[in-house]
Design goal:
The complex is a heterodimer of chains A (481) and B (99).
Chain A (H helix, E strand, L loop, with lengths): L2 H10 L4 H19 L2 E4 L1 H16 L11 E5 L26 H8 L3 E6 L33 H8 L5 E6 L5 H7 L2 E4 L19 E6 L2 H11 L17 H4 L8 E4 L10 H16 L3 E4 L8 H16 L19 H12 L2 H14 L4 H22 L5 E5 L15 H6 L5 H6 L3 E9 L2 E8 L5 H14 L10
Parallel strand pairs in A: 2-3, 2-4, 7-8, 7-9
Antiparallel strand pairs in A: 1-3, 4-6, 5-6, 5-10, 9-11, 10-11
Helix pairs in contact in A: 2-3, 5-6, 10-12, 10-13
Chain B lengths: L2 H4 L3 H10 L6 H18 L34 H4 L6 E2 L2 E2 L6
Antiparallel strand pairs in B: 1-2
The chains are: A alpha/beta (481), B mainly alpha (99).
Chain lengths: 481, 99
Amino acid sequence: MSCREITKLVTLGQLPAVEVVSSVLERISQVEGMVHAFISIVKGEALKRAKEVDKKVKEGKEVGKLAGVPVAIKDNICTSGIRTTCGSHILENYIPPYNATAIDRLLREDAIIIGKTNMDEFAMGSTTENSYFGPTRNPWDLNKVPGGSSGGSAASVSAGEAVLALGSDTGGSVRCPASFCSVVGLKPTYGLVSRYGLISYANSLEQIGPIAKDVYDCALLLSVINGYDPKDSTSIREERTEYISSLEQTAEGMKIGVFQEFFGKGVDVNVSDIVHKSLKRLESIGTSLVDVSLSKLSYSLPAYYIIAMSEASSNLARYDGVRYGFHSEKEAENWKTYYSDTRQKGFGAEVRRRIILGTYALSAGYFNEYYVKALQLRTLIKREFEKAFEMCDVIVSPTMPVLPFDIGEKIDDPISLYLCDIHTVPANLTGMPSISIPCGFSNGLPVGLQFTAPLFREDLILKLGQAFEDSCEISNPSSNL
Amino acid sequence: MGKNERHVSLKDVEHIALLAHINLSEEEKNSFTKQLNQILDYFGKIDEVDTKDVQPTFNVFEVSNVFREDTPKPSLKSKLALSNAPEKEKGYFKTKRII
């Protein structure tokens, strides 16, 4: 059942929220052993909240826009009183004393938190294999990765273990798993959704984003979590467009930018076949395709990784084992040995690799050569996108250049994994909104189509997404799980 | 700058790990040195673009120094703030000797 159907029935008193939550918990007990989408499941708390919602309905009180809807939350978003691990040993037992703003906004609308989802440690990865708690499996093929880093969030929605989910997207971490698990995932314009309570990895790039089964539910979740927040200094005050009403607008006459760079080497032929068919379908719904050029695109990947790792090395310096989190039990003669030992044992290999690379890029003698240079490239890439948007409304590409691959296949080769992010990182460098929408299957594995729009134009990618979804013969296919 | 000049040695990796306050095992020092060189080789691609006189983008909206009114607001109670601390004493976090 979709989110809007649930809310409607719960609000009318025709379906108790307790029943909705119980059926999702039942589904979790059936498939979670195979999928492993969650790090924590909050069964008791969820049922208690559901009862409160039902009580409100019975008493004739007004209920929120997400009344009774079970939502899964990525485990790097702080939930008061609910363990928040970031997929890391170092935060294994961390219980936040406050809620992220996005969580407060969900609860205000009577959504029900069902659990905290698995992720690559500190959101560093594209497969969810870097989790201290073990990998999540793709509901479409349990031998494949679900994508990452919000792999647990996307898998939980795909497998019916949650109706909606929140993820976070630093370089594609919402869109990649949405693509691999055949669900809809959106990265909002930078500053649209408050980052207060989102555990920082690369703060100038990341945003909390909605994950849902279809475009409407995705727009609904976005309409709840976005908004100016004085607690986040990068939160923007600009007036937001209407996300739900934009879905009813026609996509006819829209100009869709296509650039050959996106279909260059590195894109699996199985993926490009389906994407080309999707382009035909876009034309059949009355949009026109326009060639645009983005010659600097290939530099966005190294620029992204240099910026992300540099910011990470600074953001993760706070994990010292003193105020919270895992700490080394080893007898240490001084602070420095204690701190360094705690961080060796508390962080996994990829996190340490990125902190060390980021420290290197920011160190004396390399600062200008790597960090500043990457930020200058960011300016050039941003300018190129702005120029491209003079020719078109939305830019289209595959979300991921490859099909979901085997668990364990790429994990020992960091570069080959980094290359998978080529299509998603530009939206983070430029701050632009971007969505991944299911567009078909190849060999039984999902393929996602990505739409990117100028800053604040979520309405464009949502209405195009809705029109595209409507044109699909089978919407919301379900995995065999 | 050529590839050779970018090469990081095992000694470099030890030095950076020290700056980052992360211990590495001998085995990790070797594997990290190899992987870091591969990644830095790849990062070297950015040298192909001339970025002379281009302003760096630190933040897409170029915001800086966002201030609020200097009025007190409720904050986290000390007991709650200390609730995750492995060691505490008399309302303070406790840690190893620093000096």
